[in-house]
Design brief:
four-stranded mixed β-sheet, 4 helices
Length: 199
């Protein structure tokens, strides 16, 4: 399998973002989003997905974090889509359950070529570490729309907002890791009866 790496730069009047991803990495991260709690969450994706990821982001955080979080999700999705390529020889589907103390979350992903997000998550409070938890939905929506994947995220239980968020991101990383993993029996073939997983 050829190297699965990509780098994407996105520049708007609201944000300037550069993302580099290696799907066959070892869990190394360089994250500079200006949002420490978001860095902490994205690091969970990297560590549990065993990707290498660099994100350099500058945004209009003086207004609020919305544009920056959404655009990081968009740019990461674009980089992921480029890195995974035509999806020949991969598992395609991935799933994971992750607990953390009282919290339990599930992530299920299909690298289908079609964007879709089900975000069945309720947080017991509005902020964690000064971060607006509503923005997690915007991050995942941006990723899904531009990675062209179907993603179901379910917070099954939990009463600590930090624990819930962390289990979501860990489960997401592990589900992606499973989905992009090579499938020796699918070598040379796209895992779809259509013969393609691109639009």
């Amino acid at each position: 399998m050829k190297p699965r790496q990509a780098e994407v730069e996105r520049n708007t009047l609201e944000t300037q973002i550069r993302v580099a991803v290696n799907l066959d990495g070892s869990g190394q991260a360089e994250l500079h989003t200006g949002l420490p709690f978001l860095d902490h969450m994205i690091h969970q994706i990297v560590r549990h997905g065993l990707f290498d990821l660099r994100i350099q982001a500058q945004g209009d955080l003086d207004i609020d974090a919305h544009h920056t979080v959404e655009d990081i999700g968009i740019t990461l999705g674009q980089a992921f889509a480029r890195a995974v390529g035509d999806k020949t020889g991969i598992q395609r589907y991935g799933h994971a359950y992750v607990p953390l103390d009282e919290a339990l979350s599930r992530a299920v992903v299909d690298l289908s070529g079609r964007p879709g997000l089900v975000f069945a998550v309720e947080f017991p409070r509005a902020q964690v570490g000064g971060f607006d938890v509503d923005l997690f939905h915007e991050f995942f929506q941006g990723f899904v729309n531009h990675a062209q994947v179907s993603l179901h995220l379910d917070a099954l239980r939990g009463n600590n907002a930090h624990h819930i968020a962390e289990t979501l991101f860990k489960a997401f990383g592990r589900a992606l890791r499973m989905a992009v993993a090579p499938d020796p029996r699918m070598a040379g073939a796209v895992p779809s009866t259509k013969g393609t997983l691109t639009l």
